[in-house]
Amino acid sequence: MKRLPTLAALLLVLATLLYSADATGKWKGTLDAPDGAHDLTFDLKASGNVLTGALSGVAGEPSEIKDGKIQGDTVSFWAMAEYQGQPIKLVFKGQVLESEIHFTMGLEDGNWGTDVVVKKVM
């Protein structure tokens, strides 16, 4: 009888470890910045615990997503952008929900950050 709760707890832990949110697809949202609103588009592809893709809307050309990782429902990566003619590294960490990703994005050095919600485009 003591084995049943232990087995149930073990199965719950395994299910949590095996769950991986589906980040694959196109996601759109708006970044409100001092210089105005910027429409952001994320084209993401998840494969196991690796996330690849591109980010559009923070620079003239789409920026490749680098070091993309997936752990459960959390995604993280960075991308290069340009601000006032200077290259900047933007760092993203987000929670993937069914039809939204809630991102915290900011500068690599932590001097600036904001929250952005993007919605899956069907």
Write the layout of secondary structure elements.
Blueprint: H1 3-18, E1 25-33, E2 36-47, E3 50-56, E4 63-64, E5 66-71, E6 74-83, E7 86-96, E8 100-107, E9 113-121
Antiparallel strand pairs: 1-2, 1-9, 2-3, 3-4, 3-5, 5-6, 6-7, 7-8, 8-9
N-to-C series of helices and strands: HEEEEEEEEE
The parts where pLDDT drops under 50 for at least 5 residues are: 9-19
Looking across the biggest beta sheet, what order are the strands in? 1-2-3-5-6-7-8-9
- Helix/strand class: mainly beta
Helical element count?
1
Approximate strand percentage: over 45%
- Describe the largest sheet: 8 strands, antiparallel, barrel
What does this structure look like?
- The protein starts with a helix and ends with a strand.
- 13% of the residues lie in helices and 61% in strands.
- The radius of gyration is 17 Å and the shape is globular.
- It contains one helix and nine strands, in the order H-E-E-E-E-E-E-E-E-E.
- Strands 1-2-3-5-6-7-8-9 form an eight-stranded antiparallel barrel.
- The chain has one helix at 3-18, and strands at 25-33, 36-47, 50-56, 63-64, 66-71, 74-83, 86-96, 100-107, 113-121.
- Mean pLDDT is 85; it is low at 9-19.
- By secondary structure, it is mainly beta.
